[in-house]
Design brief:
Helix 1 packs across helix 4 and helix 1 runs antiparallel to helix 7. The longest helix is centred in the last third of the chain and has 38 residues. The two termini are about 25 Å apart. The protein has seven helices and no strands. It is elongated and about 70 Å long.
Length: about 140
């Protein structure tokens, strides 16, 4: 009886992780369609953002990738981003009301990945416990 409840909780937890991933993508799509133009207006001298605007296109996937690029600029700096110091400087002065939308999607995604990792650990521990308690024939 308890095993059924644990399995149900496990499946519901995976459903919650999937819901978090979908919510993260929905927020990203909302930002891509309603706030991306305002974000790109703040990047005037940046070649990185202007090149991405031309190469990635204006479709839903291209807009979402451009939002992710701007989110990466506002987050941590990598070597490729440091090649365009104007983009890094302009990302530092991006208004807070736009930054919170970039952070919300990323935090939900990280929370979903952490939950998925914990559920995989739970599955591994459950498998080991089942294997150790089963008698060998």
């Amino acid at each position: 009886m308890i095993a059924f409840h644990l399995e149900f909780i496990y499946l519901c937890s995976w459903a919650f992780v999937l819901l978090l991933l979908l919510l993260s993508e929905a927020i990203l799509l909302f930002v891509a369609y309603f706030l991306l133009d305002e974000m790109e207006d703040h990047f005037i001298a940046s070649h990185l953002v202007s090149i991405n605007k031309r190469t990635l296109g204006n479709g839903p996937l291209g807009r979402m990738r451009r939002v992710r690029k701007i989110g990466a600029l506002t987050g941590r700096s990598t070597h490729l981003q440091m090649l365009d110091p104007c983009a890094v400087r302009e990302a530092e002065i991006l208004p807070e009301h736009l930054r919170k939308w970039l952070r919300a999607s990323g935090r939900l995604f990280r929370l979903a990945l952490t939950g998925a990792g914990l559920l995989m650990v739970w599955l591994g521990v459950e498998w080991v416990c089942t294997t150790l308690t089963t008698p060998v024939n």
